[in-house]
Amino acid sequence: MAEALATIARIEGLGMIAIRADLSRTGDAIAEAAGLAIPGVTRIVTNGSRSLGWMSPDELLLVLPVAELADTLTTLTDALSGEHALVVDVSDARAVFDVTGPHAADVIAKLMPVDLDDLPFDGLRRSRAAQTAAAVWRVPGGFRLIGFRSTADYLRLILENAAIPGSRLAPR
Amino acid sequence: MLILLCPYCGVKAEETELSPGGEAHLKRIGPDGTAEEFEAYLFARKNLKGVHFERWRHAYGCGKWFLAARDTHTMQVYGTYKAQTAHATDEIVANARQARPEWVPDWPQASEAVVG
Amino acid sequence: MSHTPPFRLPKGGRLIDRAFQLAFRFDGRHLRGVQGDTLASALLANGQMLMGRSFKYHRPRGPIASGAEEPNALLGLGQGGRFEPNQRASTTALEAGMVLRSQNCWPSLDADVGAINTWLSPLLPAGFYYKTFIHPRPFWKHLFEPIIRRSAGLGRAPSDPDPDRYEQAYAFAEVVVVGGGIAGLTAARDAADKGGRVIVLEQDPHWGGRTPTDHDGGQAAIDTLLEDLRGRDNVTLRRNTMATGLYDHGYLLAREALADHDLNQGIPRQRLWRIRAGHVITATGALERPLSFACNDVPGVMLASAVRDFIADYGVAPGKRIVVVTNNDDAYRTALVAHGAGLEVVAVIDARLRAKGDLPQAARAAGIRVMTGTAIAKVKGGRHVEGVALCEQAGAGRVTGSLDCDVVAMSGGWSPVVHLYSHCGGRLTWDEPEAMFRPDPARPPLGADGKAMVTVLGAANGDLRCAGDLERAEGATMPVWVMPHNAPYKLRAKMWLDFQNDVKVSDVELAAREGYASVEHAKRYTTLGMATDQGKNSNINGLAVLSNALNQPLEATGTTTFRPPYTPLTLGTIAAEAKGDAFQPLRKTPIHDWHARNGASFEPVGHWRRPYSYPRAGEDRHAAVNREILAVRSGVGTLDASTLGKIVVKGPDAGRFLDMMYTNMMSTLPVGKCRYGLMCNENGFLMDDGVVARLSPDTWLCHTTTGGADRIHGHMEDWLQCEWWDWQVYTANLTEQYAQIAVAGPRARELLQRLPGTIDLKQEALPFMQWAEGELAGIPARLYRISFSGELSYEIAVPANRGLDLWETLHDTGRDLNITPYGTEAMHVMRAEKGFIMIGDETDGTVIPQDLGLHWAISKKKPDYIGKRAQARSFMKDGSRWQLVGLESLDGRVLPDGAYAVEPGVNANGQRKTQGRVTSSYHSPTLNRPIAMGLVRHGPARMGQVLDFPIPGGEAMKARIVDPVFYDKEGTRLNG
């Protein structure tokens, strides 16, 4: 039997903080508190174990090791005190999968209506995977896909189905 | 299946990533409205063949509502623009009039005001 | 093993490999084909011309085509869950061990009882369904319909689940070329030169379309193009991929066959491509038209192109003595190919008076007899062609001679394949000289940019000589719509237009006489073009006959609408991954697995699965519900309420915003307190409800119903973004961030106080409708003192990943209190005992809060809220609306949910007048009697009156109007 198209791995131990604010007013404060530059529209900035993704014109998502979550929540909240902003822990609301391997893009292309040729190396694309909301960005060797925790089993199932051996998208 | 450019995030989203919201530029009628005004606000829709302004939410993307000027017959998209806009931009109007010269916007045009 | 089937030619067949023999079965017979055969070529090689029966008259039928347009040779394929009806023999590749079955015949293909219909055909003209079976009325239901149903339908549906995998995939390209013939490949090369991504789709397993078969040097030309294209990074060449439909904005669906008949690989059988194309080039070629002469449906009458395909591509002789009949030069290629293969070409019957092109001359030079100005008066033979009677094309069918033959190769000219172009609004124009509809360059389908999104090239564009240098000069085609031109009715009643559906020239003429002048009406009246081939053969001929009957030019008649799919798609491909466990995203709470381990019986609530109840050994679902309710009312129970929507609303204008969202006042809610709120839409109707907690001066947390979380969050964002965008408010949907557990019952506090924690649970510290935050059993938690059960109750929110922790801790700690998990049904019954409304039960999108007696939750002070204006409309305020009451069954039976209360008289439709209906109805284990709520006209003013609720069987149950609060009217328990 041929190999699966990609390795599907659930990633645990990530903290996530949703930040809603007027980025033009508060960008510097957020960048300093998060320790990352503010990403451009539909981009994600990564440095070491932290990433800061652009979710919406007034929303960012900070992804970081869960051990740093509590302190960073406080730091961000303090940095934005006096501003109209919302900083909330959404770590438990998400399920994260890494799809890696030489044909990881095939797996994504079977599930998401996203032109991956158009996705820059630091692009973050919010869309859907089959019938559920998901966001995707590139990680070394493939893609990271996040969706809602309640649909984790569904996400794993459709990802593994899409990766079944012998189902590469290249013409036969 | 439509593709619309989200004016907030620049993503060319397909219809399955969007949710529709009906006719755009309705003026809300509150408790002071007359029965006729309120009826029109709730129910009277242009529903025309041709240039149409409509609401869409980039539901599976950035979550923002935006407006689209679309031709209900040819499916041509004259442009998309942010929801916090009183009416379509001059560029969109120009696009629509190029495709449908007989169409005129039903709001006062800055450029025409100058000419007139 | 070396046995060669009787009609396999000794040599030739560019697509087959004679070294690989394949055994298969057809209606039980053991036959042999070779690698590369289609089912049709393999059957023909074995002399099996009869492959099916027509739909209406059950006439014997053989294949007429060699491609996707084949109407007759439809077979049942496979066994069990892999059985598939209506597989086209002409496009299905033969595989070893295949089991084929003929369709639409009984008891057998050779001796079909339904063929009696052909003798009854004078009684079954066009529209006979509509004329015959109308009266007397009862006959339709009891006599005609059952008979028609039994004899209708083509093929059988498989009875077992499909065991195969299917998938879908998205692709994006600047240019998609449909059709891998010479026009398509040339266009792909030109498009690729511009640098964008190019995808080329070819329906067949091999490239080249007709060019390799029809032109010397054709294969070499195709190979050169393929070599060029394969060397380019921006080109994807995909065979076995049928473009089935083109939709708005360049959305193209295509079905790729991956392992259609090689199922042991475990890979997906088919894949549906969802392609977004910047521009689409259709180079889909053309289809040959049949000619309408009497008995043109006898097996052995085939399209001329099909005859030469079987000879040249598969090395199969459809027959040994061939008559070609044509109105154009192209069919002479068939005569030459057959002659070259050593078959006898009896004659070429050419309707034209002159045939002087290169091809006719070549035929004459080869010694083939050419008869111009001649027509076929009639085909002789029943189950197989035995010969043809000849006449003058210009005449009325007087027989001038006859020829013996076993195959008639006919060509009525070619029709461009314009389906994809037309799917999305491309318009056609009638090309009189070439006698065909072709794309009108002035009216193409438009894309999002308002420019043409489809370019049609090659034969599909009417350029039938698109092979360029490979072509020979051809003479003009002469339109021939019936043969002979002045054929009398007797002949026209035997000229088939639509072979599968048995529509004849006389049927279309009848439709025209009876007033079906619109082409769309005539189609439906006669069923012309409604077969699985969707008129690929019959369309143009039928339109021409209709036009002649109406005395109007073909252009005025127009065409019927071309709709996707081009060829049928299997449902498995459309469903793809969405089956079994992946049918829908199944949402699970963090405590889901515990529920499953502890015997929960689940029910769907939106995409969620929630425990309905937890039946124990020997208990059914309802016994479990009763036990759970009594346990909560007497001790303590836990409900997994994690699915409730939880939306944070924060900002300087959050209070003002929530005052608009809810009917009651939220801005005045003190920090630390909770308030039950109602949400309406602008129509005034109640759409959601839930408890709102004020977390801080600028932050509120809004609970929604389970099904309402995403919808209400979207509703809030809509108003914030589109109406009050200057208000400073942020929202976040935190539904999934928290697990929420309701701990309810008189011993709830006692249980929670056993857990280590930082929250003071005493009544004074945390009274009803307040919340507190702190640590509970080592978990950060927020406790809301709210109650949907009517008992002392806390809803505890903890981070989702700690939810199971808390749940298990509660159960460990409360074992001696008989702590009981309860499900949604117990929750529903308990809230009904308390007279609490449920969104979706007491509301249905037409109910306003005032109908439900919820005036206390509607602010009189606020100048405005969403729905306020609507609730002031005259019919919302008049007293005759149905209003909430309790209903007490008089005989101890539970009222059926949804039952209507009737009143004397009937309405305009002759139905009983109604005055109310049951909205919730249960057996209350607490009270040990039935309880119900309902909406009744003037209900609250009619306490004590008895209403009739008819139930199936003619009986009416009686119920008394009572107060909707059945249990603990004073509310002492939840305040306890």
TrEMBL record, chain A:
Cited Gene3D superfamilies: Heterotetrameric sarcosine oxidase, Probable tRNA modification gtpase trme, domain 1
Top-level taxon of the source organism: Bacteria
Pfam family, one: SoxG
InterPro entries xref list: SoxG (IPR007375), TrmE/GcvT-like (IPR027266)
The protein's name: Sarcosine oxidase subunit gamma
UniProtKB/TrEMBL annotation, chain B:
Any single Pfam family the record assigns to this protein: SoxD
Alphabetized Gene3D superfamilies for the sequence: Folate-binding superfamily
InterPro entries in the record: SoxD, SoxD_sf
Superkingdom of the source species: Bacteria
Protein name: Sarcosine oxidase subunit delta
Gene source species: Paracoccus fontiphilus
Taxonomic lineage: Bacteria, Pseudomonadati, Pseudomonadota, Alphaproteobacteria, Rhodobacterales
TrEMBL record, chain C:
Ranges of residues in domain SoxA A3: 494-577
Location of the GCVT N-terminal domain: 591-862
Domain Aminomethyltransferase C-terminal per the UniProt entry, residue ranges: 883-968
InterPro entries attached to this UniProt entry: 2Fe-2S-bd_N, FAD/NAD-bd_sf, FAD/NAD-binding_dom, GcvT/YgfZ/DmdA, GcvT/YgfZ_C, GcvT_C, GCVT_N, Sarcosine_oxidase_asu
Record carries keyword Iron: no
Top-rank taxon: Bacteria
Keywords associated with the record: Oxidoreductase
All residue ranges annotated as the FAD/NAD(P)-binding domain in the record: 174-421
Family: Belongs to the GcvT family.
PANTHER family: AMINOMETHYLTRANSFERASE, AMINOMETHYLTRANSFERASE, MITOCHONDRIAL
Protein name: Sarcosine oxidase subunit alpha family protein
